[in-house]
Structure formats: structure tokens, C-alpha cells
UniProtKB/TrEMBL annotation:
Matches recorded under CDD domains: INT_Rci_Hp1_C
Annotated protein name in UniProt: Putative Phage integrase family protein
Tyr recombinase domain residues: 158-317
Key words, A-Z: DNA recombination, DNA-binding
Signal sequence coordinates: none
GO biological process entries: DNA integration; DNA recombination
GO molecular function, one term: DNA binding
Lineage of the organism: unclassified sequences, environmental samples
Organism: uncultured marine microorganism HF4000_097M14
Cross-referenced PANTHER family: INTEGRASE_RECOMBINASE HI_1414-RELATED (PTHR30349:SF94), PHAGE INTEGRASE-RELATED (PTHR30349)
InterPro entries, per the entry: DNA_brk_join_enz, Integrase-like_cat_sf, Integrase_catalytic, Integrase_recombinase_N, Tyrosine_recombinase_XerCD
Length: 317
């Protein structure tokens, strides 16, 4: 409630509303005090009712702030930034964040569901969801997360791409393969490392028969090295002077030139870990150590290209 008290020097306005501390202000004129008291009480009651007028930022502005304040400290900063920049091309990027509804995000999902794989689309939805969670929990904007109210696309089946001996031979010995690319492909085959991990190798990380990986996808780890991997690392210049994006583009161009279809640089890691299990007879636990996986189900799910013919060959060996 609001009340006015006459003082010798003028008027004192006092506003008391539940869940708020008392507010007191002095005025010389009765009319000014009355107007202030009415407006202040109304404002506090609106806040209690959750209908106070809040100035919501545009999705674009909030997303750019998220990139600069939150995403920049993540290991996946470059990937997340690129995803957000793609999302900012959508019309709803110009809406206030409280106007980005489940219906709008559902249309965004439907727009791309036939153009990209489920995993790719889910990564975009994950980023949107993470931003809304940050805006609500850390930045204080009372907005609902629209991603939580829509149907998610199904994730695609894990890639089942294994290179043939002829494809590997072309990649390693073809006339368009540079010395650096040849070294990286060979190293990936011998270590099962992620491309991003290989590009961070420094000479001081090599300790005899082991290699320390200080910045991995989940946590730092040390992996064993084959004799071939040791020779590769001793003979090459470290670190590799190339960025991850550029390396991926070079690999795709190389595959296109050699007529190798549906091949990603990351597939070489799959190939390597599968070879460890099939050819070098490593068990799941040993292969997990090399791969850096915490859950054996991840290894069995992702590297599910242990073909029936491979298993049959082992049974009949």
C-alpha cells in the first residue's frame, strides 16, 4: 500500500508492497508525492505479478554477446561460433528473444530437416537451447526455452565409411598429395588421433613411446605410439602449420581429385581405431585408451563397421 505523511517541510511518500523493502521519498508538493506513490506501488505490484515490462534484447544481440562472453572460453569455440553465425542468417535473429517461440524453432527445424543430417540439425538446436538456458539462468531474462517444446529430429546412424586399400594408396602416394598431408594421413592411421589433436602436437609432447595430448575433446590424455608413429613424429616439423578448416578443405579437394567419394578427414580416425581392433587384435579397453573414450558403448556404437565378414574371418582363423 501507499501512504502520504504531512511533514513540516512538505510531504513524505511511503510505499509498502509484499516481497519488496519499503520505499520512502520526500516531496515539497502533495501532488508530486501522490503521483510518485501511485506509480511506484503499481510498478512493484506488476513485478510481483510477473508482468513488469522488460526490455528483451534481439536474438542477434544476445547471441553475439554469448559468443563474446561464454562461447569464447569453450574448447569448441570456433565450431559453436560458426553454428551461431549460420543461425543468425535466419529471420528470427531480428526478433526479441521472448518472441522466439517453439513454433518459430519448429519451422527452423522443418526448413533444414531434408537438407542436412539429423546430427547436424540437432547440433544447431543444441546451441540455440544452450543460449536460451544461459539467457534465463545467468543473465536473468525470464524466457522459456523454445527448443524444449519441439520434436527433435532423429540422429543419423553412425558413419560406416572404411577406406579401401586402393583409396589409402591414392591418398598416400598420389601425385597431388603434399608431403604435409601425407604425414598427417599417415599419423592419423597410426594413432587414431582426431585432426584437431594432431594439429596441436609440439615436440615436447613426445615422450619416447608415448605422446601427451594436452588439449583433447574431453580431457588431456597420453597415448602409446607405434614404431611407425614414432618415426613419423621424429621426421616431421611440429607443430603442423595449418588450421583445421583449411586442412579439411584440402582433404576434400584431394578426395575429389582422386575420385574418392563420401570421405571425411575424420573417417581416417575411424579407420585407424577399427584397424587396432581387427588387425592388431586390441581389446575394447585398450582401444578406448587410444581413442580417449570414457564409455565403451561409444566405441562400439561409433566404430560399428566391424563387418560380418571380418567377424567370420576371425572365427574361422
Amino acid at each position: 500500500m501507499a501512504c502520504l505523511i504531512k511533514r513540516s517541510w512538505g510531504w513524505q511518500g511511503i510505499v509498502r508492497v509484499k516481497s519488496h523493502p519499503s520505499i520512502i521519498k520526500s516531496f515539497q508538493k502533495h501532488g508530486d508525492a501522490k503521483r510518485w506513490a501511485i506509480e511506484t506501488e503499481l510498478k512493484l505490484r506488476r513485478e510481483n505479478a510477473g508482468i513488469a515490462k522488460i526490455k528483451y534484447p534481439l536474438f542477434r544481440d544476445a547471441a553475439l554477446r554469448y559468443i563474446n562472453e561464454v562461447s569464447i572460453d569453450k574448447k569448441c569455440y570456433r565450431i559453436e561460433r560458426n553454428i551461431i553465425n549460420t543461425i543468425l542468417q535466419e529471420t528470427f535473429a531480428e526478433y526479441p528473444i521472448n518472441r522466439v517461440t517453439p513454433s518459430i524453432i519448429g519451422k527452423f527445424r522443418d526448413k533444414f530437416k531434408d537438407e542436412v543430417k539429423g546430427n547436424t540439425l540437432n547440433r544447431k538446436l543444441d546451441v540455440i537451447s544452450t543460449m536460451f538456458t544461459t539467457w534465463r539462468k545467468e543473465w536473468g531474462f525470464p524466457v522459456d526455452n523454445p527448443v524444449l517444446s519441439i520434436r527433435r529430429p532423429k540422429n543419423s546412424e553412425p558413419r560406416d565409411r572404411r577406406f579401401t586399400d586402393q583409396e589409402i594408396n591414392l591418398l598416400l602416394r598420389g601425385n597431388r598429395t603434399t608431403e604435409q598431408m601425407r604425414t598427417i594421413i599417415n599419423l592419423a592411421l597410426e594413432t587414431g588421433m582426431r585432426p584437431s589433436e594432431m594439429l596441436r602436437i609440439h615436440p615436447e609432447h613426445i615422450k619416447g613411446q608415448t605422446l601427451f595430448i594436452p588439449v583433447a575433446k574431453s580431457r588431456p590424455r597420453t597415448i602409446p605410439l607405434t614404431p611407425t608413429a614414432q618415426r613419423i613424429l621424429k621426421s616431421c616439423t611440429l607443430p603442423f602449420n595449418v588450421g583445421l578448416d583449411r586442412l579439411g578443405k584440402r582433404f576434400r579437394r584431394l578426395c575429389k581429385h582422386y575420385g574418392i567419394k563420401d570421405a571425411h578427414l575424420y573417417d581416417i580416425r575411424h579407420q585407424s581405431l577399427t584397424n587396432f581392433m581387427l588387425n592388431k587384435k586390441l581389446d575394447v579397453g585398450s582401444t578406448m585408451l587410444i581413442a580417449g573414450h570414457k564409455d565403451p558403448r561409444m566405441l562400439l556404437r561409433v566404430y560399428n563397421n566391424l563387418k560380418v565378414a571380418d567377424v567370420a574371418k576371425k572365427l574361422n582363423a
